[in-house]
Amino acid sequence: MQVSDQATADSAARELRAFLERRREQIAQRWADAPLFRTVFTVSRDEAVEACKTVVDALADVASTGRLDDIASPGFDPVREQLGRMAASRARSGFSPAQIAEEAAGLRVTAAESLRGELHDLPEDVAHEVPTALTVLMGTLSLVIMETTVIAGEELIARQRQQLLEVATPVISLWEGIVAVPLIGTLDSARSQVVMESLLDAIVEQRAGYAILDITGVPTVDSLVAQHLMKTVAAARLMGAECIVSGIRPAIAQTIVHLGIDLGSVLTRSSLADALAYALTQQGMVVSHAAVKPR
User: Fold this and answer.
1) How many CB atoms lie under 10 A from the CB of residue 175?
2) What is the pLDDT along the chain (295 residues), one digit of tens a residue?
3) What pLDDT is attached to residue 285?
4) Which residue pairs from 44-50 have beta carbons closer than 8 angstroms and sit at least 24 positions apart in sequence?
5) Are strands 172-175 and 178-184 parallel, antiparallel or unpaired?
6) How far is CA 4 from CA 111, 121, 126, in A?
7) Chain Cα centroid distance, residue 77
8) Do residues 141 and 80 lie in contact, with contact meaning Cβ atoms separated by under 8 Å?
9) What pLDDT shows up at residue 163?
10) Are strands 210-217 and 178-184 parallel, antiparallel or unpaired?
11) CA angle 89-93-94, nearest 5°?
């Protein structure tokens, strides 16, 4: 860029900042009625106006640096959390990223309308560059909004995933002092950690002396799954509970043997019922099978 062009761009950025500072109230009042702000700040319109003012202030700060296309500009830092709440709210309402981007682009139209009446007093070259500078700045704001949208979406997915893991690994109280975790589906590292934490919490809360890990619903057992089971068993023992693994089907038993996995130190039973019967017997209860009467 030539020196004269740079000087014009710098002048345009300064004029843009001055415009945003002068028209702060007017722009904020109009933005407060935009869907992007209105759906978040529903307590009062004044709250929405104040939120809009902070965004206008952020834009003015960025304009003062002359780096209108810098998405990482510190000027955006004060409003990133606010923009994230706005974007997340729209996403939860069912709006796609493209629709949110379109709403963000609509903010530029409002600001541009306010700018048109203030260009006649500026030198011709600067008057030509200020609208361009506003377009660049508002485009950067849209990118910041989309960035916060993606981050908010990722955080929501992570929370939902954690919730699903917790729902998929319930700890059931079978009897006084006996808890069980029926495992269904694939057991990976993340889910294994949830299983261990949930089981240990239940052992403490219910003062359980026996914990049953039922893997009837686990389709396959490999060395990684076996390692997770061993760690859970060891952790339960450290908490003072005897851990029983039940539901080992013949195919899984063969797989464990072929892999050379040593589960010799783990107490196992063929079914959840057998594991419960063992735990009850260890507590001094007599467990008998009811006789089936012929029809």
Assistant:
1) 14
2) 454 577 888 888 899 999 999 999 999 999 988 888 876 665 578 888 988 999 999 999 999 988 898 988 888 888 887 887 777 777 777 788 788 888 888 888 889 988 887 777 778 887 888 999 999 999 999 888 888 878 777 777 777 776 666 556 788 999 999 999 998 887 777 778 888 888 999 999 999 999 999 999 888 888 888 888 888 999 999 999 999 999 988 888 888 888 887 777 889 998 999 999 999 999 888 887 665 555 5
3) 87
4) none
5) antiparallel
6) 27, 20, 11
7) 20
8) no
9) 62
10) parallel
11) 125
Reading the block at residue 188, the tokens are: 């990976």
3-state SS of the chain? Answer: CCHHHHHHHHHHHHHHHHHHHHCHHHHHHHHCCCHHHHCCCCCCHHHHHHHHHHHHHHHHHHHHHCCCCCCCCHHHHHHHHHHHHHHHHHHHCCCCHHHHHHHHHHHHHHHHHHHHCCCCCCCHHHHHHHHHHHHHHHHHHHHHHHHHHHHHHHHHHHHHHHHHHHHHCCCEEEECCEEEEEEECCCCHHHHHHHHHHHHHHHHHHCCCEEEEEEEECCCCCHHHHHHHHHHHHHHHHCCCEEEEECCCHHHHHHHHHHCCCCCCCEEECCHHHHHHHHHHHCCCCCCCCCCCCC
Tokens of 57: 């202030």
Residue 295 and residue 274: Cα distance in Å, rounded? 27
Contact at 8 Å (CB) between 117 and 22?
no
Report which residue type is found at 2.
Q
User: Listing from the earlier edge strand, what are the strands of the sheet with 172-175?
Assistant: 172-175, 178-184, 210-217, 242-246, 267-269
In this structure, are residues 227 and 259 in contact, taking their beta carbons and an 8 Å threshold? no
